[in-house]
Amino acid sequence: MAIMWSDGAPFPDLTPLWLTMRLAGVSVVILLIIGTPLAWWLAQTQSRAKVAVEAITALPLVLPPTVLGFYLLVLLSPNSMLGGAWRDVTGSALTFSFTGLVVASVLYSLPFTVQPLQASFEAIGRHPMEAAASLGAGPMDRFCTVATPLALRGYLTAMVLSFAHTLGEFGVVLMVGGNIPGQTKVISIAIYEHVETLEYAQAHLLSAILLGISFVVLIAVYAANRRFPVHAG
Predict the structure, then answer these.
(1) What pLDDT digit, counting tens, does each position of 155-166 carry?
(2) Residue whose C-alpha is closest to residue 29's, from 155, 209, 182
């Protein structure tokens, strides 16, 4: 039996909210795995390719979501090399699937992970790492025991911003995943659908939930920045 408002309007389905939270959680984990070595390399390298890699990483900040979504749709389609290989191995398509949404979300939110981490790694400076090396710590040991704890503020900021950014995705996920209930219909698409059908009460509730989550996320970022000061080497 459907739950109704006092005015008789149906209560909105919260499945898109849980799907969005799951998408954000999975994306953040993958972003940390990919973004950590990339941010560390950008913070340490003197390569001429650094500027180009930084520009590519930051592209999602300036590209319209529909443009990025279109190219991802082409890249992940079964007719492409990547999409075709995925279909041959798994028997399913990347497009219009939760896996495709994860790929799109990771690429779209990459700068929100890499840039805070890179800034934190750069703020550490050379002295703590040189001191650890003088005590016999290897490169991985120095990174895990020195760089990572000192960059904790950057990690917290990266996780929170990436999670929040994924929650609000619309254009990219719509292009790549479509609007399949229970599979690719995230909360932003559900809100848009309710507005299109003039179901403003349902749209208002989902929007209020997203607004509340975003507000809590921002409070978490500012609280983390106050608790964990920047370490300069």
Answers:
(1) 988 998 899 899
(2) 155
